[in-house]
Amino acid sequence: MRILHTADWHLGDRLGRIDRTDDLRKAVERVADYCKQENVDVLLVAGDLFSELARPDGLRETIRHWQSVFSPFLESGGTILTLTGNHDNENFCQTLVSAMSLASPTVGKPGETVPPGRLYLAADPTFIRLEDRMGGFPVQFVLMPYPTPHRFLRGETGLKYGSPEEKNALLVAAWADALREIRAHPKYDLKAPSVLGAHVHVHGSTIGPSLFRITVEEDVVVEGAELPNQFDYVALGHIHKPQWLGAEHMRYCGSIERLDLGEQADQKGVILVDIGPDGRNGEPVVLPLHATPIYEVVVLDPAEDIPRLRAEYPSANNDLVNLQIRYTAGKDQLEDVLRDLDKIFPRWYARDWKETGALGPTLVSPATGGGKGFGETVHEYLAQELIQHDEAERDAILKIADGLLKEMEN
């Protein structure tokens, strides 16, 4: 059985002012291409299918895109196994699971052999079997969503905790208990090939510059030292930095795209693994995915830096850029600086500018020999600082400032 492991799609995500829909859909289409090229039997998506920033209409369009991209794979007998992550909307995913259960009411009992050619979404700890299409042998799949109180702490007692640390400790214990209960289930065969898919932070993993929209203090970190001995392959999601832990068959595949500046050096990919009747065949193989360049650009002297950047980045139309700009009032025209940088980096996702305060030498015009008055200088400074604000709002603020300045002069 050929399994393609991927995770952290974050479909419908945004980075600053940039909608990442097209970038992420292209990555999903490349995953579908690998399914065809590599004769994949099972596509395992280890959580965070959707972004918490996705709107309801965006989620609907995402499902439609999935249908068009993966219909050939499903129609050929391929199976998609997914599970929920910390960024997946619990209500939406639970509703989706309920709707899928109505369509296939006989699917869902622990240890059941499920039919191929379908998509399965696990919103709770799940244990199913799939038969290999060629060999006919069964492979066990244990699917463990991200540990949240709603998913893992059952009953009123489990929802009572006095601090975030106590909550995390309860979730760590509940996650381990849920996995232990599945492996102790009467239908679970300790000798049969088995695969774990989990969206969780495993102790000992390398986070990289930062977790994605979650702090280390907020995250639930579970122990995983025994997992490589318990499963023929461990497909992990949640940590976006690709890596293996303890053994080469226990892996974070990483996200399918660079999602923020902390991932600028990550090489993205998906992982292909073969499972036979006696377990894993060979070591997992990484298949590369193209990732959008993302970086920070610092402008200290616009007059010198902008011509240089124009020459250094002739084809940056698709790059995601964080702009940090310094300019000198009276020397640099901020509006022109922003316009020039916008032409070089049209997909800047964030920008910040700061005036250096070197106003003195620029207040006197050599041509006239006269200096600008205090009121005029303040008016021009405010006009530049407010250049990106709404025009009516800017004019209203300038009118108030001019009135105050006039009162001071009188």
UniProtKB/TrEMBL annotation:
Any signal peptide, and if so, which residues? none
Primary gene name: sbcD
| Protein name stated in the entry | Nuclease SbcCD subunit D
Give the similarity note.
Answer: Belongs to the SbcD family.
Tell me the keywords, alphabetical order: DNA recombination, DNA replication, Endonuclease, Exonuclease, Hydrolase, Nuclease
* Annotated Pfam families: Metallophos
Please state every residue range assigned to the domain named Calcineurin-like phosphoesterase. Answer: 1-242
* Gene Ontology BP term (one): DNA replication
Q: Which GO terms describe its molecular function?
A: 3'-5' exonuclease activity; endonuclease activity
Complexes and interactors: Heterodimer of SbcC and SbcD.
Q: What is the documented function of this protein?
A: SbcCD cleaves DNA hairpin structures. These structures can inhibit DNA replication and are intermediates in certain DNA recombination reactions. The complex acts as a 3'->5' double strand exonuclease that can open hairpins. It also has a 5' single-strand endonuclease activity.
Q: Which organism is it from?
A: Gemmata massiliana
